[in-house]
Specification:
Largest sheet: 6 strands, antiparallel
Strand order of the largest sheet: 2-5-6-7-1-8
Distance between the termini: 60 Å
Number of strands: 8
Oligomer: single chain
Radius of gyration: 22 Å
Length: 217
């Protein structure tokens, strides 16, 4: 009887340890805004959008470019490209079930990319990419973001993070807040903004996002 009890306790312990192994979950989201009219001040628009992103980013990479020689009748949109396609590195990543894709915008007036690692100690990381595309009737703003969350693990940080998520959600909720802040910034310079397309995962919820109008809702 004593041996059976030990075996049972050991089995429960091993099962619990297996369930607490760290796992990494990546979620992607995007929103595309149409911004009109074309007569709004371009520099004011770009500055307002950049300021909105800066408020929630720990580090920014900004590229400004000149408008294309001839504005297109309709704007393009961001594309996801594999930087390691048709390479040995790409084959290695594929064999490990890893898929690395980066957003790219052609003929963008401005691109902004961020890596927010302020919550890295709690197993969370956010990336955000934004581009402003001009066309004859106005502008298009594309925002693409990813959120990486580590689940499991018996570290103090992992336990604290799990408790925090159960109470107020995780830092993914700041992604739709940033998206909405960009929309508000564009409207502040006299633009009419409409949502062309969007995808906000159901996982992106918490007390703060619930207080803010999410992009595309």
């Amino acid at each position: 009887m004593y041996k059976k009890a030990i075996s049972l306790a050991l089995g429960i312990t091993l099962t619990g340890c297996a369930s607490m192994k760290p796992t990494y979950h990546t979620e992607s989201t995007f929103v595309i805004y149409d911004v009109k009219p074309a007569t709004i001040d371009r520099n004011q628009l770009l500055k307002a959008v950049l300021d909105a992103v800066q408020k929630s980013a720990s580090k920014l990479r900004v590229n400004r470019d000149i408008p294309p020689a001839e504005l297109p009748a309709t704007p393009g949109r961001f594309e996801l490209q594999d930087p390691f396609a048709n390479s040995k590195m790409g084959a290695l990543l594929a064999s490990q079930a890893q898929n690395i894709r980066v957003p790219v915008c052609k003929n963008a007036l401005m691109t902004v990319s961020t890596d927010n690692t302020s919550m890295a100690q709690y197993g969370e990381q956010t990336t955000l990419f934004l581009c402003v595309l001009p066309y004859k009737e106005g502008y298009q703003i594309d925002i693409y973001s990813t959120f990486i969350r580590e689940n499991g693990g018996m570290t103090p940080q992992g336990i604290s993070s799990a408790i925090g998520r159960s109470l107020i959600g995780d830092s993914s909720q700041f992604i739709p807040r940033t998206m909405n802040a960009v929309r508000t910034a564009a409207e502040s310079v006299g633009a009419k903004v409409t949502v062309v397309d969007s995808y906000i995962p159901e996982d992106f919820k918490g007390s703060f996002v619930n207080q803010t109008e999410s992009a595309g809702k």
